[in-house]
Amino acid sequence: MSEFSKEEIIDILSDDSRNEWLFSLADKTRKEYVGDEIHLRGLIEFSNICRCQCKYCGLQSINKSIDRYRISPDDIVLYAKKAVDMGYKTVVLQSGEDEYYSKDIMSDIIKRIKSFDVAVTLSIGERSYEDYEAFKIAGADRYLLRIETTDKELYKQMHPNMSFENRIRCLKDLKVLGYEVGTGCLVGLPNQTIESLADDILFFKEIDADMVGIGPFIAHPETPLKDASNGSFILALKVMALTRILLKNINIPATTAMETLNPNGRIIALQSGANVVMPNVTTTEYRAKYEIYPNKICINEDPSQCRGCIEGKIKSIGRTISKEKGFRKH
Ligand code: SAM
Ligand code: FES
């Protein structure tokens, strides 16, 4: 029983009495379709400069209290090399929407990193078809761009000067260009309904997402949503578990936001459908400054501490770390 209707999804999300059943079915589906291996992706948060004003995000351009930084292309390549030397098979390049990293600068960074025989994932926001095409030609393998919410009215409220249609255009362009496409949503945004979360899950299925990242919303004190309540860890976990049950063979990260709300959040997620972890591989000088939301984990740890910590946790639950690049298993 894994082709849930929208009504069934809403019922499951609204009722906590079947959570144990849900999480164990998601874990069983994960084991059957993607196995016990966990893929570690080394995350480089290379710029916190952003032209957007997403209401929930600490990096939004109107936040004047944040210390902005940009890591140089040479240093980004250096961090990637160190990640590869530590055993990472994928490097994720993430930033705010920072136009300094033009089509040519970004393509050059990607080409240089690809010479280390590693998969490259980009998470740098909305760009033109031409930019996405150039990054693909340079060697980028995957792209993460969360839809955040499929509720168009809520999307509009949360993203001044952006459009839902352009977000969809980006996701379609990325698919056409042959990227493995990652999307996902925030759980617990103000005025978000359970019905719209069910639509989010069905949207992931409809666009045949290769990766889906689900995270609880965490209120940031320097944003317009500073007085809003945080999202629920359990509800985010349920959205993630349902996504595993419906999409089966995709890659699903145990997100950092989950661990921010629950000290064992990533391990619980890995036992409820997730099969990917994205440890930070930048040094401590940047970590606190990439403050999407407060109390982010690991801001005082260095890359090798994070690697050791997560390896230990993964072994403690009897899972293994993959030595492969970890593309979607078809
Ligand atoms: N600029 C790129 C983009 O928008 O795709 C990548 C960086 S953006 C900071 C990465 C993700 O952080 C977003 O997709 C969003 O879901 C998440 N995020 C932002 N603010 C958050 C908050 N307050 N709580 C939880 N997650 C948040
Ligand atoms: Fe960073 Fe545990 S993953 S310290």
Commentary on this structure:
By secondary structure, the protein is of the alpha/beta class. Helices cover 42% and strands 13% of the residues. The protein has helices spanning 6-14, 19-34, 73-85, 103-114, 129-138, 152-158, 164-176, 194-206, 233-247, 256-261, 265-270, 284-287, 303-316, and strands spanning 37-47, 90-95, 119-123, 142-144, 180-187, 211-216, 276-277, 320-321. Strands 1, 2, 3, 4, 5, 6, 7 and 8 form an 8-stranded parallel sheet that branches. Helix 1 (6-14) packs across helix 8 (194-206) and helix 3 runs parallel beside helix 4. The radius of gyration is 18 Å and the shape is globular. The two termini are 20 Å apart. The relative contact order is 0.18. The mean pLDDT is 97. S-adenosylmethionine binds next to loops. Residues 279, 298, 301, 305-306, 309-310 line the site of FE2/S2 (inorganic) cluster (FES).
Features:
13 helices, binds FE2/S2 (inorganic) cluster, 330 residues, TIM Barrel
Proportion of residues in β-strands: 5-15%
Q: What is the makeup of the main sheet?
A: 8 strands, parallel
Q: What is the CATH C level class, in words?
A: Alpha Beta
Identify the quaternary structure here: single chain
